[in-house]
Specification:
The chain has 147 residues and is mainly β. It has no helices and eleven strands. Strand 4 and strand 5 form a beta hairpin.
Amino acid sequence: MANTNDISVGTYIRFNGDICQMMEWQHRTPGNLRAFFQGKMRVLRNGKQIENRFRSGEVIEVLRVEVHELQYLYREGDNLVLMNPTTFEQLYVPATLLGDAMGFMKEEMIMQIGFESDVAIFARPPKQVELTVTSTEHAVKATLPTK
C-alpha cells in the first residue's frame, strides 16, 4: 500500500476493483480549501479513461507490473502461446488482451506483455508490422460529372 505522495504518471493501481494506469497526476491547492490530488486513469480492462480526486495522504493500492518481451509462436484455442526468447519458457496468454490487433499478428513477432503477480493484464503488439497483400477487389474507375 502507498499513499498519494508515492503515485506518479505511469503507475499501476487498483481502483474500484479494476487495474488502472495513471495517465495524469496533479497536486492542487484551491484557495482556502484542503489540498487534493487529481488523477486521470486508463482502465486496462476496457480502455476507458476515468478521473478521480484523492485526498492528500489517502492510501492507494499500487501494483507491481512487470513487462516482458515475448515471442508469439501460435494460437491455441482462446490462448496465445508465447515464448521467452532468453529462457525458452512457453506461456499461455488470453488472446482477448490483443483485441483487434490480433488480425495483424504473425508468428515469431515480438510483443510486450504486462504481468501482475504472474497474471497477464495487458498486451502491446509491435508498433510496425510488415504484411503482404494477397488479394484485393478490382478497382472501378469512376468518371466525375462535369459542370
